[in-house]
């Protein structure tokens, strides 16, 4: 498993966001967006398995979307900016705000559909 890195996480999320803009302009880069989202999830997994799972759920939703799926990049970046200000964020990672889940579907119990146990 990778050593966690917030800057690497932000780099991959930023790359995904830039490429997503290209997708919206008609360029066929959706698979590149998915790749960067996967890399971002790997970079953050040790500090926050939950955030890694949320990013993964956004990737899966994008892969399955027949429409332009709107990933909340700005909200996730705002959250990570706040996390960086916490001195012990490596041992005390804060709860992820609801805004980072925006766009994901709810499951039968009202929680977010995170595709846990899914091998995609």
Task: Write the topology of this structure.
Blueprint: H1 6-24, H2 30-44, H3 49-64, H4 73-84
Helix pairs in contact: 1-2, 1-4, 2-3
Description:
By secondary structure, the chain is an all-alpha fold. It is built from four helices and no strands. It has one domain. The chain starts with 5 loop residues before the first helix and ends in a 36-residue tail after the last helix. The protein has helices at 6-24, 30-44, 49-64, 73-84. The mean pLDDT is 91. It is globular.
Number of strands: 0
Mean pLDDT: 91
Q: What is the CA-CA span between the terminal residues?
A: 18 Å
Instruction: State the low-pLDDT regions, or none.
Output: none
| Secondary-structure element string | HHHH
Which percent range describes the beta-strand content? Answer: under 5%
Quickly count the domains.
1
> In angstroms, what is the radius of gyration?
14 Å
Helix content: 40-55%
SSE-based structural type: mainly alpha
Overall outline:
globular
| Number of H/I helices | 4
Largest sheet: none
Labels describing this entry:
single chain; 120 residues; mainly alpha; 4 helices; globular
Question: How is this structure best summarized?
Answer:
With 120 residues, this protein is mostly helical. The protein has one domain (6-101). It is built from four helices and no strands.
